[in-house]
Amino acid sequence: MPLPDLADLGDLPPVPLDLSHDVLKSLLGAWALAACSAAETAAVEEHLGSCGPCAEEALRLRGAVGLLHQPESLDLDPALRTRVLESCLDRRPPRIPVPGWAAPYDAESARLDALLQDFGDAEWHAPVRLRWFEGDAPTSRRTTVAGVIAHLLSVDGLVATALGLEDPLAEALAKGEKTETGETGAQGAAGPAERTETFWRASHFPPTRSVRGPWREQSHNLVRTVSFTGSTAGGLAVPYGPFELPLHDAMLDRAFECWVHAEDIAEAVDYPYEPPAPRHLNKMIDLAARMLPVALAARRRAGLSAPGRTPHLVPAGAPGRSLRLEIEGAAGGEWLIPLDSPGAVGSAEFEVAHVALDGVEFCRLAAGHVPPEEAAAGQVGDREAIRDVLFAAAGLSRM
Predict the structure, then answer these.
(1) Regarding beta strands 333-338 and 319-328, do their DSSP bridges make them parallel or antiparallel, or are they unpaired?
(2) Distance in angstroms (rounded) separating the CA atoms of residues 268 and 311
(3) Closest-CA residue to 228 (of 144, 102, 131, 141)
(4) In this predicted model, what pLDDT tens digit does every residue of 27-56 receive, in sequence order?
(5) Residue 92 and residue 288: Cα distance in Å, rounded?
(6) 367 contacts: CB under 8 Å, gap ≥ 6
(7) CA end-to-end span of the chain, whole Å?
(8) Where does residue 303 rank: exposed (0-12), middle (13-18), buried (19+ CB within 10 A)?
(9) Residue 137, strand partner residues
(10) CA distance 268 to 328
């Protein structure tokens, strides 16, 4: 008789062992843990088909093992910090709470710091491309992860100096470092882009991981200072070069930039990064919506609006032609955007267009990361008005 092919023996089912009931019952725990040999497993499973008490016991043991071995991701839940803080604060409210308008910045700077925590030299020098719109054209600037943090440090310094804190560019400005415009000193470094270029240029070497410490300390000082100052400081003016923002809006702006650039960094190192909490994202969307009328007026002055379109000027505080901006998702809502004058009031009666976008998509549009032609999920009404609003939203972006 010919011998069987040894290669086929591995496919043969295990032969159940002839074991007593007591032995089989003692193997139930090992079987539930998948610790039995193939032959023991076959014997136990054959026995379970004919013994009701053992089958019930095996079912209970398998359920208990399931509770002991819940599959869990190795990545921390991005909402874990918020849940822990909320639980702690429910038990003991802070003696000096963070104002509501500063909470998004507190959360987003902490999330970014957590992302940076375990970066090695390779990640800190990973290339990042900053993207924004100038006029109606997309533009970009190449830097590194460390360069992005240096950018955030420089622009956050606008808020720091408004609060009387140390300016991270003080040394560079004292040396009279020239900006791209050829100006020197504080005037040349007044705007976000100029301040960033000044900081980058003043460094003897490209920024490295050492920039994390000053940025982290400054972000903590900002949150601590506005908390001690209280809600009454929210109207303090923060200069952004050609324009100003009240402190409560400036802190929202910095939270928005912190999130957007954290996504840039996460993309550069191929790491997932979640959007902000819906209640924080809603505040950022509201800030962008409130800035749109001024952005529309700036487009008209620059000759970027639809040709032949004459604005219907209305007195300040009066209703005028409006676009309904509908933001979908947990952070959503509706805003009536006055089209013809920053001083006009949005009015449903004079609504001429309706645009619907996802909340995260709208924010990426306002960050200059999404082309206006590809942003809107739904558009109804005056096409020229819709185009102007979408391009004005992209024009809110800057380096």
Answers:
(1) antiparallel
(2) 43
(3) 102
(4) 888 888 888 888 888 888 888 888 988 988
(5) 34
(6) 131, 132, 256, 260, 397
(7) 83
(8) exposed
(9) 134
(10) 28
Handedness of CA 139, 142, 147, 148 (dihedral sign): positive
Amino acid at 50: S
The one-letter code for the residue type at 246 is P
Residue 279 has pLDDT above 80, yes or no: yes
- Reported residue count of the chain is 399
303: which 2 tokens? 């000759």
Please give the distance of CA 98 from its chain centroid, rounded to a whole number. Answer: 20
pTM of the model: 0.75
Side chain identity, residue 324: R
Beta pairing class for 319-328 and 345-358: parallel
Which residue is associated with the tokens 């987003």? 108
Note the pLDDT tens digit of each residue in 281-296. Answer: 999 999 999 999 999 9
In the numeric block, which tokens belong to residue 290? 């409130």
What phi and psi, each to the nearest 5 degrees, are found at residue 389?
A: -70, -40
